[in-house]
Amino acid sequence: MTVEIDLAGRVALVTGAGAGIGRGVASWFARAGARVAVNDIDPGRAASAAAELVSPAGPALPVPADCRDEAAVEAMVATVCAELGGLDVLVANVGMLPPGTGLAPVTGYGADQWRAVVDQNLVSAALCARAAATVMTTAGTGGVLLFVTSGETTRPAPLNAAYGAAKAAVNHLVTSLAVELGPAGIRACAMAPGTTATETVAAAFTPERMEAIVASTPLRRMVAVDELGPLAVFLASDLARCITGQFVLADAGAFLSRTRPANDEGLRRPPAGSASDA
Length: 278
What we know:
Shape: globular
Strand content: 5-15%
Number of strands: 7
């Protein structure tokens, strides 16, 4: 017997989908037959990613917006509903370290840096969830809220404590959303990748650092960009209709054996990205 996941007739919005994990997730929703809206803060990246997606349901819709901006998020969700006929799945993927911040000890982070990281990771997710849940509740058809968090929430995150703390807060948000929105037929889950082989990560780590990460995981590998998409599609499908409030690790087993070193050896410190990469 063959089991296929068919999301035909559903609309999925993926934030931070101009590159990296978000782009990969969006491509899987398109392949599963969903109408897909592609968000990125950069209009050019949103348009480029949308143009590449091929779905039997039709072309993807680029919806550039800054997910930290309340009005922009509301307008984005309204556009998705108007253009694609509703919203069934939100994948809140925006994250990582925003411009003006970077890897640093807790003593090196001031109030502005903390607020920037919390806004980028927690506030953006909460704003997107509120806008999506409002639409889903009004429609009365239920829906799915998926959040890309991080394996950094399962262990100490030296030099990256602000990011780890903000993503851990998203994990907690998921449990609250699951309880609050469950009666409306809305499910909420978090997907947590380990260090993922995105362009951002490749630019950040030296080959030696990459080899050390691989060697420290039970599966002796990093997570591939294309591997979160199948998990997201499964969680959004009816095959997972009894799953809500859960935190799903997809980290090659890194949480079992690895704590990041409390130094910056092997880091190149590139400009911060806008998509969740670890």
